[in-house]
Amino acid sequence: MIKGKKKSKSRNNKNKNKRGKAVGYERYIYKVMKEVNPKLEISSKSMVILNNFMQDMAEKIVETSKSLLKYAGRATLTSMDMHRAVKMELPGQLAKHAMSEGAKAVVRFATHEQADKSKKN
Length: 121
Description:
Elements: H1 10-18, H2 26-36, H3 44-72, H4 79-89, H5 92-120
Helix pairs in contact: 3-4, 4-5
Pfam family, one: Histone
Region (Disordered): 1-20
GO molecular function: DNA binding; protein heterodimerization activity; structural constituent of chromatin
């Protein structure tokens, strides 16, 4: 009896590799909570609920920005598109606060990257 070649497992692994990792916000929720009040604690069920809420909000903002791009007939996402999506999904002051914190995070990232490049040279 002649044995045939075995199928490679790489085909099966391709689909597994395409799946993205689930994003978890637990660490950030915990840090913010401790910053607000170091004595606070949170149950694991509450953490799951907050994590799901954060994932849903991020997904809503992404979907809104995608629909704005489609409506505008463009393929490139700009910072203004993200600003519009955040304003559409978050109410009033919360949107303003989120955008200012996002801008601060981008500035911190850019200065950190610039410092790393200067250290390498």
